[in-house]
Amino acid sequence: MRLNYILSDLGIGLKRNLSMTIAVVVTIWVSLALFGSALLANEQVDLMKGNWYDKIQISVFMCTKDSGGRGCSGTEVTQEQKNRIRQVIESNPDTAPDGVFGESKKEAFAQFKKLYKDSPIVSTVTEDQMQESYRVKLRDPQRYQNLVSAVAGLPGVDTVQDLRQYLDPLFEALKGLKIGAYIASGLLLLAALMQISNTIRLAAYARRREIGIMRLVGASNFYIQLPFLLEAILAALIGAILACGTLWLGVYFVVMRRAQETFKVWQWVGASETFRATLIMVVVGIILAVVPTFLTTRKYLKV
Amino acid sequence: MIRFENVSKTYEGQTKAALLNVNIEIEKGEFVFLVGTSGSGKSTFLRLVLREHRTSKGHIMVAGKDLNRLASWRIPQMRRQIGTVFQDFRLLPNKTVAENVAFALQVIGKPRSHIRKTVPEVLELVGLEGKQDRLPDELSGGEQQRVAIARAFVNRPMILIADEPTGNLDPATSEGIMKLLDRINRTGTTVVMATHDVSIVNQMRKRVIELENGHVVRDESRGVYGYQH
To answer: Which residue numbers delimit the ABC transporter domain (chain B) (predicted)?
Structure first.
């Protein structure tokens, strides 16, 4: 029965401030949607990183007659050199156990033909021009420098290739985008916070007579705050639900229907990541409503 | 019921004290007039009793509780024992007479059945039977003040504080309001009334406390408004 009065108060409050309430809902909607996208972008970068780093291996290419690397002397790499190189790689602590695979000229040529099967270049290349190599899997893909420097320059080693040096700039760029999205959504969330606080201030001003009488007759602070809290939470929830819907639509149409079809090899964020993001969004939305409302109404209730 | 012990109050940013070394004891069931010119400290006195402000020095006991030691979350509870009436009535214009009175009970969480029973009773007590569905705008000043008194009294407070309740009313209407306050006093409620109204004070012959520049300059039982020089 107490709830009745509170709910009728809530209805009156929402009606009175309809335009402000809509403004709050829209701000929360947009800012939370952007925030959720940033969360998902973060997940996506992590997924891609894991994807790529898993496949990362260091390729140690060995000398042919024509190669001009530091460890080459214009002759084919000898079996003795190859054994020595293999030993150095295997004894390095960063090499994964059983992580060394040799690729012979023949295998390299087959791979080459497969990769460029539609290109005229295949006919100009012979098996002899291929480089023998060791492919090394790492214990921890982040730690590659040690092995690279240990192997580079050994007699018979032409070049050491590490995919990371190509991937890292890409991930740096993605990280920049991610941070940008977080900052933008953070600013929007801050704007939402201040807007809610202003809306509550206006609502409290519109109800100052009632509030004055409530205080006079001894209504508890919580009772006085409750309609404001409910109003703000309701607005935040509507905004959050709209934002979650927007995010789901975005994931469905952009990721599931387009990206996943086009880039099948990559892993993409899916339902579980989106669900997690929406949970966080709802929680953030509610905090966004409760904190400023609580602080603003407290100021009005100071005795 | 209300005791001031060496109470001083200086408002923030002011050098002059609004109240200075006030010692007053008001017993349960007393009717007390608080008189004095504007700025003499009457309103400060009442606000301190309501714990709208803290004392700068000294202690105030209300119904056995030291207001300085009252946790802020207990203040609402304390105020439920004090009814308050003002010169400007402070009614909610969009609520009817009955709703205005019921509001005071609703917001402290009284059950609906209790409200339905109590509100007509108190409206009858203040002489507003049959007007429960009127809006404040449709009532005379005296009637509006009766609504305010009904609202202040509906929770049966131990203390009724009235700040110039007849300030906006003509003498005949004021007399009716005073009779009502007297009737409420007779139910055992302590009444403290700040006023400028000489004839009312002289007529009622109740205790008079006079304030001047924050000091108590006179405290007489069965007193009149001013000294007869």
So the answer is: 2-228
Residues of A in contact with B108 (CB under 8 A): 217-220, 223
**pLDDT score recorded for residue A4:** 66
Backbone angles phi, psi at A294, to 5 degrees: -60, -45
What does the domain layout of chain A look like in residue ranges? 2-52+168-301, 57-162
Kindly list the averaged pLDDT for each block of 10 residues, start to end, along chain A of length 303: 64 74 89 90 81 74 79 80 85 81 84 76 79 82 77 83 75 82 86 86 84 89 86 91 94 83 75 90 92 84 63
Helix, strand or coil, per DSSP, at residue A227: helix
| Residue A1 to residue B111, Cβ atoms within 8 A | yes
Q: Is the separation of the CB atoms in A18 and A10 below 8 Å?
A: no
Average pLDDT of span B47-57: 93
State the pLDDT at residue B73: 85
What values do phi and psi take at B224, rounded to 5? -120, 180
| CATH architecture assignment, domain A57-162 | 2-Layer Sandwich (3.30)
Which residues lie across from B22 on neighbouring strands? B7
In this predicted structure, which of A42-51, A210-219, B70-79, B157-166 has the lowest mean pLDDT? A42-51
Answer yes or no: do B107 and A219 touch at CB < 8 A. yes
> Which pLDDT does position A299 carry in this prediction?
78
Residue B210, phi then psi, degrees to nearest 5: -105, 135
The C-alpha of B76 sits at a distance from chain A's nearest C-alpha, in angstroms, of: 4
pLDDT class for B229, splitting at 50, 70, 90?
Answer: very low
What is the nearest CA distance from A7 to chain B, expressed in angstroms?
A: 13
Token pair in block for residue B170: 């003509």
Give the C-alpha separation, A30 to A40, whole Å: 15
Cβ A215–B155 below 8 Å, yes or no?
Answer: no
Q: Give how far the C-alpha of residue A257 lies from the chain's centroid of Cα atoms, to the nearest Å.
A: 20
Would you say the C-alpha torsion A23, A26, A29, A35 has a positive or negative sign?
Answer: negative
Amino acid, res. B71: A
CA-based radius of gyration for chain A: 31
